[in-house]
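Worked Example 4.2. Consider the chain below.
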Amino acid sequence: MSNISINQASKLFKVSRNTIYARIKKGEITKNSDGNVSVQDMMRLFGDKADKKATEQAVNELLNSTNNIEQLIEHPKRNNEQLLE
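Applying the procedure from the previous section yields the following structure tokens:
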């Protein structure tokens, strides 16, 4: 699975940022070099089994919106590069 920011994880899984940082320190959550945490670890630790489907859907929507934003940012960048050539 993918990674999300600590702020996004905190809101999505309804846990405090301090709790997430404590779990990172214990080695229970993987944090990458960008400071993002593993969605899989968050789901394993904080995903309620009854709400697993809703949590997965929310994560997928968040990741899709992030990808869309990245594409929107990249598109003008490519246009600017073409203009400079």
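The mean pLDDT is 80. The longest helix spans residues 52-84. Compare this with Example 4.1 before moving on.
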